[in-house]
Write a structure and sequence with these properties.
By secondary structure, this protein is mostly helical. It is about 65% helix and about 10% strand. It folds into two domains: about 160 residues, Ribonuclease III domain (Ribonuclease iii, N-terminal Endonuclease Domain, Chain A, Orthogonal Bundle), CATH 1.10.1520.10; about 70 residues, 2-Layer Sandwich (Double Stranded RNA Binding Domain), CATH 3.30.160.20. The longest helix is centred in the last third of the chain and has 23 residues. One of its GO terms (molecular function) is ribonuclease III activity. Its EC number is 3.1.26.3.
């Protein structure tokens, strides 16, 4: 593969996003997964991991500013909305809407395992693209990009229309801050066909949930644990 092809693909993506005078090399880097960089060392391409790190911080700031300046919300409410909108499931959904996966540079193994549709990979690439826009065009253009792509999810979260996958939210939170995945244990199935589930982290009970199905009970347990973490964060602030 030649750099010309990467450049044309990145330029096509930039045009689709409606961004003018964007640094093409930065966008190529944002679209370059580590698997591609590692398999093609002779190309001297940097993966998007550093950009993703920066994009994560920029996204948190932009969402916080939007929620603070455009809505009258409590600190706790802003925190919950930001966390929901910046979650892996929403970012990957937004990435699919802008067809980001079509432009990713992936290694053969990642390509063959369906990397273009992986939520985690798409969410990370979305943050990398945001960082590339910020570095090339500045904060205002980065904010315009987020408002165009994510504003509807902010509105949905505010109105309660955004379906909250609390198991995903909790796992993202515990992996980010503790490097651990939560464990769900079926406590018992009660006489009225209600399932009871407990969720643990490193052996410590985080929350409990009940539901007509095991899946719903797990979601309730995750919701209990996740909101407990958020409330603790507010009290520490």
């Amino acid at each position: 593969m030649k750099m010309e092809s990467f450049t044309k693909s990145a330029e096509k993506f930039i045009k689709a996003l409606g961004i003018k005078d964007m640094d093409t090399e930065l966008m190529i880097r944002a679209l370059c997964h580590s698997s591609f960089a590692n398999e093609n060392t002779f190309l001297n391409l940097e993966s998007n991991e550093r950009l993703e790190f920066l994009g994560d911080a920029i996204l948190d700031f932009i969402l916080a500013e939007i929620l603070y300046t455009e809505y009258s919300l409590s600190e706790g409410r802003m925190s919950k909305i930001r966390s929901a909108v910046a979650s892996e499931s929403i970012l990957s959904r937004a990435a699919r809407e802008i067809k980001l996966g079509d432009f990713l540079l992936l290694g053969k193994g990642e390509e063959n395992s369906g990397g273009r549709e992986k939520d985690s990979l798409l969410a990370d690439a979305f943050e990398a693209v945001l960082a590339a826009i910020y570095l090339s065009k500045g904060l205002e253009d980065a904010k315009n990009f987020i408002e165009e792509v994510l504003k509807k999810y902010i509105e949905q979260a505010l109105s309660g229309e955004l379906v909250m996958d609390y198991k995903t939210r909790l796992q993202e939170y515990t992996q980010k801050f503790f490097g651990l995945r939560p464990e769900y244990r079926l406590k018992n199935k009660e006489e009225d066909e209600t399932f009871s589930v407990e969720v643990y982290l490193d052996g410590k009970l985080l929350g409990c949930g009940k539901g007509k199905t095991k899946k719903k009970a797990e979601q309730q347990a995750a919701k209990s644990a996740y909101e407990k973490f958020l409330n603790e964060g507010e009290n520490d602030a």
